[in-house]
Amino acid sequence: GMNMKKVAVILSGCGYLDGAEIRESVLTLLALDIEGIEYSIFAPDIQQYHVVNHIAGEPDQSATRNVLQEAGRIARGKISPITELAAEQFDGLLIPGGFGVAKNLSSFAFKGSEGEVEQSVIAVLQAFKTSNKPIGAICISPALLALTFGDLQPTLTIGHHAGTAAEIEKTGAVHQVCETNDCVVDTTHRLVTTPAYMDDHANLKDIFQGISKLVKAMVGLSK
């Protein structure tokens, strides 16, 4: 039967240059809704690495923002600190992308394969993995899986970007090239990944198709 009733979603802020990718986040919630899957949204209650002006594309040194409060914008206020995420209450975990994943949830943006994952995020990832529940990661979020589970040699994708793929593979993970409208399923480790805006010029419909396939694959893994 269908065992994917509720999924936990982790956001890394609000805005692709310093937080969660807003379109990926919304399309993730839409894809879950279409499949009839409930969700709860979480984020760490920490300061963002920095704040980026999304028009200029440059950091605003005078500004500081909180990851949980910023993610709350996407969640319409219905969000909890990641420390309250109890894996046993969910059937799967989903992490949209955006630079917040590589700057706030980890230091992958700065240190690549030598980067570290935020402790509260590691705890959640390990809890879902230990209980054999599917984890879906979008865009740059597969880097979190590589940094946390690299020694298990999971198969992941970040799309086509050779430099990022090389860093992913330094962790022990196996990178598989993938189109935006598709996803990569590691049935052994119950991990599903899709590139989304790893291609800056990707079409929204292709991104949604990839995310939709990812959600369907998670459902398949939970049966």
Notes on the protein architecture:
- The protein is of the alpha/beta class.
- The protein is 35% helix and 16% strand.
- It contains eight helices and eleven strands.
- The strands form three sheets. The chain has a seven-stranded mixed β-sheet, with helices on both faces.
- Strand 3 and strand 4 form a beta hairpin.
- Helix 1 packs across helix 8.
- The termini are close together.
- The model has no long low-confidence stretch (mean pLDDT 97).
Name a few traits of the molecule.
223 residues, alpha/beta, seven-stranded mixed β-sheet, two-stranded antiparallel sheet
So what's the overall shape?
globular
Strand order of the largest sheet: 5-2-1-6-7-11-10
Percent of residues in helices comes to 25-40%
Label the structural class.
alpha/beta
Using only C-alpha atoms, the radius of gyration works out to: 16 Å
> For the report, how would you describe the main beta sheet?
7 strands, mixed
Determine the number of helices (DSSP H or I, runs of at least 4 residues): 8
Rounded mean pLDDT score: 97
Number of strands: 11
Q: Could you tell me the strand content as a percent range?
A: 15-25%
Q: Which H/E pattern describes the elements? A: EHEEEHEEHHHEHEHEEEH
Spans of at least 5 consecutive residues whose pLDDT stays below 50 are none
Separation, N- and C-terminal Cα atoms: 6 Å
